[in-house]
Design a protein that fits this description.
about 350 residues, alpha/beta, Aspartate Aminotransferase, domain 2, Aspartate Aminotransferase, domain 1, 2 domains, four-stranded antiparallel beta sheet, 13 helices
C-alpha cells in the first residue's frame, strides 16, 4: 500500500501510535475538522490563534469551508483553560489549538498549556488536536536557536490526540501535511472519502521518506534547511574571506567587504528568533546597484541578494558551501559586463 513505510517511520519519529500524510498542513486540518464535526459541528478555538497562513488564507476561513462552526473563546491576548471549559458542550466536535508558528505576542498575554487543555478534553471526552505548523521534530536549541519550537513528540506526550504539521519548514522535507497521534483516529481519517482527494503523490512521498530516514538516523546535517540553520558564524566568515579573495583577484571593478548581519528562519517558523550571519558587501564602480543586482538575478543560476546602505549584500547563510564557486563566477560575469 502506498505510503505504508513512511507512515510507520513517521509514527516512530513523532513518538505516535500512528501517522499519515496528505498534501499540505491546511489539507490535514481540513481532513481532521471534516471528520470530527460530521455530527457535532463546533470547533472550539482561541481567538488568539485564528492566524493567517501563506497566500492570505486564514485558519478560521479554512475551518468554516469544511462546514464546521467556529466557537471562539478568550480574547486576542488572553485565553484561559476556563474559557475552553465554558465553551465545550453537546455540539462540540473538537478542541483545536493552533501554534503561533509565524508570529508571536508579548506583554499582557496568557494561553493555557497543551497539558491543561488535554486534561479538559479527557474529562469532557472531546478530541483535542494541535496544529503545530512549522513541524520541528528536533530541539531547536540543538540548532543553536534560543527560542524553543514545540515538537510533535512533546505535544503528544501532553495528551494531545492528534497533531498536524508541515513536511517542509523546520521538518526540512517537501510540502506535505503530516498527521500523527492515536491509531484509531488516524485509521478513521484514512477511511474518509476526502483522504483520497488530499493524498500525496509518489514523488512527494519519496522525498519525505528520504527526509524522515535522515531524521531517524540522526543525520540532520544532510537536510538542507537544517544544515543552513546549524552553520556557525566562524564557518561563514571563513567562506566569505575565501570568496572575497577570489573576487579581489578577478574583479577589479568592484569594491568588496565582509560584514556581520542577522538572519531569520522565515517560511512561517521561529518568528522571534534571529541568527548571526555574514554578508559579502559589493559596490560596483561603473554601474548602479540596481543594474548590478538585476544582472546577478539573470545569471545562471540566479544570484539573489538585497540592497541596503548603498551596498549590494549576499547573505552566506542562504548559500550552500558547494555553491561558493558559482557565486564567484556569477559576480565575475556581472562585473565583466559592467566593465
Amino acid at each position: 500500500r502506498r505510503g505504508s513505510y513512511i507512515e510507520n517511520a513517521l509514527a516512530l519519529l513523532c513518538g505516535a501510535e500512528s501517522a499519515t500524510i496528505v498534501n499540505n498542513c491546511a489539507a490535514a486540518l481540513v481532513l481532521i475538522v471534516r471528520h470530527f464535526t460530521r455530527t457535532k459541528a463546533e470547533v472550539v478555538i482561541s481567538r488568539g490563534e485564528l492566524v493567517q497562513i501563506g497566500g492570505g488564507f486564514r485558519i478560521g476561513e479554512i475551518i468554516e469551508a469544511t462546514g464546521a462552526k467556529l466557537h471562539e473563546v478568550g480574547a486576542t491576548n488572553k485565553t484561559t483553560v476556563d474559557d475552553y471549559a465554558r465553551a465545550v458542550g453537546p455540539n462540540t466536535g473538537i478542541i483545536l489549538k493552533v501554534h503561533r508558528s509565524n508570529f508571536f505576542m508579548s506583554g499582557f498575554v496568557e494561553s493555557p498549556s497543551s497539558a491543561e487543555i488535554s486534561a479538559l478534553a479527557r474529562k469532557t471526552r472531546i478530541p483535542f488536536v494541535e496544529d503545530l505548523g512549522s513541524g520541528a521534530v528536533v530541539a531547536t536549541e540543538d540548532l543553536g536557536i534560543a527560542d524553543h519550537e514545540p515538537t510533535s513528540a512533546e505535544a503528544l506526550k501532553t495528551g494531545v490526540d492528534l497533531v498536524c504539521f508541515s513536511g517542509d519548514k523546520l521538518f526540512g522535507g517537501p510540502q506535505a501535511g503530516i498527521i500523527a497521534g492515536k491509531k484509531r483516529l488516524i485509521t478513521a481519517l484514512k477511511r474518509e472519502p476526502l483522504f483520497r482527494a488530499l493524498r500525496c503523490d509518489k514523488l512527494s512521498l519519496a522525498a519525505l521518506q528520504a527526509t524522515v530516514d535522515l531524521h531517524l538516523n540522526q543525520r540532520t546535517s544532510e537536510i538542507p534547511t537544517l544544515a543552513l540553520l546549524q552553520i556557525s558564524e566562524d564557518e561563514l566568515r571563513t567562506r566569505a574571506a575565501a570568496i572575497c579573495d577570489q573576487l579581489c583577484k578577478r574583479c577589479s571593478g568592484l569594491q568588496i567587504a565582509i560584514d556581520r548581519s542577522t538572519a531569520k528562519a522565515g517560511g512561517g517558523a521561529l518568528p522571534k528568533s534571529t541568527m548571526s550571519s555574514v554578508t559579502i558587501d559589493i559596490v560596483p564602480r561603473n554601474c548602479s546597484l540596481l543594474d548590478f543586482a538585476a544582472r546577478l538575478r539573470n545569471s545562471t543560476p540566479p544570484l539573489i541578494g538585497y540592497i541596503v546602505n548603498d551596498r549590494f549584500k549576499l547573505d552566506l547563510r542562504t548559500i550552500f558551501p558547494q555553491q561558493d564557486d558559482l557565486v564567484v563566477e556569477a559576480i565575475r560575469a556581472a562585473s565583466t559586463r559592467v566593465l
